[in-house]
């Protein structure tokens, strides 16, 4: 059993960092919270919906409507430009067509501008640095204005300066979009900036601390 006795709730708008040693179950917990994996026992409620009661297609629709993802390995499509990669969640929802397509493309371009990539819209992932690719992934995660953002080691493969910039962007977009953020990290600076830190060890929660203010 990777996880056991896990029982906690995340309030709307919280910024939660899940920390702990390698093998403690952090990424497994994130996958369960996002509905990517099914628990062998217990329930996971995402925005009030019991994920165990939903089929695969229903969970996929729920994620498309309400969830954004930032992965350590970016998962950008190599044949798409930065702008096209950011538009992928909207394409999956059938939103980048018809009268609203220009507005959505402007929103995607605006997010890339905000993360400092306004001059890289038409560059492919192979033409971008690791930090630039992570910022594309961050813009993609927020383009459909999700209620909740899950991130797995969002600064894990970045240098200190770029990692600090990504942390600032996460906090800024969290505040402005009022999105709930739940992330896994080994980065002590990122964990220190979170409003709440949940620490795992041996597949169990050993501490759950909220930062005052």
Low-confidence stretches: none
**Shape summary:** globular
Write out the strand line-up for the largest beta sheet, numbering strands in chain order. Answer: 4-5-6-1-7-8
Strand content: 15-25%
Radius of gyration: 17 Å
Descriptive report:
It is globular, with a radius of gyration of 17 Å. A hairpin with a 2-residue loop joins strand 2 and strand 3. Helices cover 38% and strands 17% of the residues. It is of the alpha/beta class and 213 residues long. It has helices at 26-33, 56-66, 82-92, 101-114, 130-142, 160-177, 188-193; strands spanning 15-19, 45-46, 49-50, 67-71, 148-152, 180-184, 196-201, 204-210.
Quick rundown:
With 213 residues, the protein is of the alpha/beta class.
Which secondary structure elements does this structure contain, and how are they paired or packed?
Blueprint: E1 15-19, H1 26-33, E2 45-46, E3 49-50, H2 56-66, E4 67-71, H3 82-92, H4 101-114, H5 130-142, E5 148-152, H6 160-177, E6 180-184, H7 188-193, E7 196-201, E8 204-210
Which keywords apply here?
about 210 residues, alpha/beta, 6-stranded mixed sheet, two-stranded antiparallel sheet
